[in-house]
Amino acid sequence: MGWEDEKALEGRTGDPEDPLNTIREQCEQTEKCVKALERLDQCTERVTSRSQTTEECTEELFDFLHARDHCVAHKLFSKLK
């Protein structure tokens, strides 16, 4: 760690915030992610309302994670050193 890095960290306490968590939260608010999350929530409600079902919400979960990670990928690498 160089002098400039130490100087930048002087006023901080604790661990620095992970930019991944912040970017994920921002991406979850985009239209595409909101729609995918709504479909996942609808599927979850449908599955939990039934006593016997073979349906799982795997596809809906993967769709949501894919949409979020696609958004994150474009923003995260500009934050990394």
TrEMBL record:
UniProt xrefs under InterPro entries: Cyt_b-c1_6, Ubol_cytC_Rdtase_hinge_dom, Ubol_cytC_Rdtase_hinge_dom_sf
Intrachain disulfide bonds: 27-71, 43-57
Main location: mitochondrion
Membrane topology field: Peripheral membrane protein
Family statement: Belongs to the UQCRH/QCR6 family.
Role of this protein: Component of the ubiquinol-cytochrome c oxidoreductase, a multisubunit transmembrane complex that is part of the mitochondrial electron transport chain which drives oxidative phosphorylation.
UniProt KW keywords: Disulfide bond, Electron transport, Membrane, Mitochondrion, Mitochondrion inner membrane, Respiratory chain, Transport
Annotated ranges, domain Ubiquinol-cytochrome C reductase hinge: 18-81
Protein name listed in UniProt: Cytochrome b-c1 complex subunit 6
Region of interest: Disordered: 1-21
Source organism superkingdom: Eukaryota
Residue spans of biased composition, Basic and acidic residues class: 1-15
Entry GO terms, CC: mitochondrial inner membrane
GO BP field: mitochondrial electron transport, ubiquinol to cytochrome c
Alphabetical list of Gene3D superfamilies matching this protein: Ubiquinol-cytochrome C reductase hinge domain (1.10.287.20)
Subcellular location: Mitochondrion inner membrane
